Amino acid sequence: MKQKLLDYFEVDELGTTVRREILAGFTTFISMAYILFVNPSVLGAAGMDKGAVFTATALASALGCILMGALARYPIATAPALGINAFFAYSVVIGMKIPWQTALAGVFVASLIFILITIFKLREMIIDAIPADLKYAISGGIGLFIAFLGLSNGKLITANKSTIVGLGSLENPLVWLTIFGLIVTAILMVKKVPGGIFIGMVLTIILGLVTGQIKAPSRLISLAPSLKPTFGVAIRHVGDINTLQLAVVVLTFLLVTFFDTAGTLVGLANQAGFMKDNKMPRVGKALASDSTAMLVGSVLGTSPVGAYVESSAGIAVGGRTGLTAITTGVMFLVGMIFSPLLSVVTDQVTAPALIIVGVLMAQSLKNINWSKLEIAIPSFLIMIGMPLTYSISDGIALGFIMYPITMIAAHRGKEVSPIMYGLFFVFIGFMWILNVG
Predict the structure, then answer these.
(1) pLDDT per residue over 114-137, tens digit each?
(2) What secondary structure does DSSP assign to 322-363, as a single string?
(3) What is the pLDDT of residues 163-216, one digit of tens each?
(4) Which residues span the membrane (predicted)?
(5) Pairing of strands 78-80, 164-167
(6) Residue 105: which of 289, 269, 243 has the closest Cα?
(7) Cα angle, residue 36 at apex, residues 35 and 37 outer, rounded to 5°
(8) Domain locations along the chain
(9) Residue 163 · residue 405 · CB < 8 Å
């Protein structure tokens, strides 16, 4: 039996060991454990029960990791994605004033579409239709948006009547807590310390407790919070998706998760040496794994699940098989007993994590062909539009509307796919409904 498992995961063939795979899985978990506390904080801003979101996050992450490891056999972990959860909370719920229950139903519908287009192998075709430069712009733009949220939540920047935004007051001790967390986390990341983001959060919490800026929890461990406030809500509110505006929200969930997951999978596969002839083996199973986790996650009560770039930490220490991802999944289940720590994970604790993750995501901007204005202009509008409009969907709309126009102006209209022309009209309708209708 043991040998069959080793053969199934190709442990010997890939030159690794079970011990190394377990260590890699634990390293990946430490690197991304912050999502257990950041996701409830972000979705909590939308009015969702933080305890229920904590449990949903842990369960959805565990399921995605285990499926990715067992079916696709990749050392790639999954969890509710930063960026899309910000879109869910700040753009859809707060910005568009759509109830979180309806937004969650949008995630459920998007995940069903995900599964269908994965089964019929349309997902890769749709992804291929979007120019690579715009994919990079979306990823980088989400990074800027996340960093902006971190700076705002940590009170490093605040509203200013004269300049729209300005530097926060350095007389506020909470600002210094954010600054401490950002500096410590940055140093840890630069030194490539595994789990740097998580360790930075822990050190910031300790400083907050010592200085009295954070109230100590009454206990450290307990049973996982109940899922009752969020479980099944998505299914019960599917009928609420009855307007074009909500249909576009579903489409945006679909598109943003598309780019995030596809780009991360390809990047990690390259790092691990899995790519063959520019193709990723078993990519269908990998996509099916994250689609299933996204569907189940929406029913449990969390934003879309996707592949995590922090998986690179596990790959860096030698993780090469699905055993790495399975180990990470098991660790998420173990992590469910630490829900009381939610009370000490304040905005000042999560802000540095958001800023650093924003930096990591913004690195994709280097891949854009900035020398061609027909590419640079729509890419720039996507990138800058997200933080300045406080909306990921608005940023995407600005770029997708401009792209066919600039390409036609550059006499390259024939290079624009029919799908992109279709999205041009979709997003014009989206902007009209949002601002006029």
Answers:
(1) 898 888 877 667 666 778 888 888
(2) HHHHHHHHHHHHHGGGGGGGGGG--HHHHHHHHHHHHHHHHG
(3) 888 888 888 999 999 999 999 999 999 998 877 888 888 899 999 999 998 888
(4) 21-39, 51-72, 79-98, 104-122, 134-153, 173-190, 197-216, 246-270, 321-342, 349-365, 377-403, 415-434
(5) unpaired
(6) 243
(7) 90
(8) 2-366
(9) no
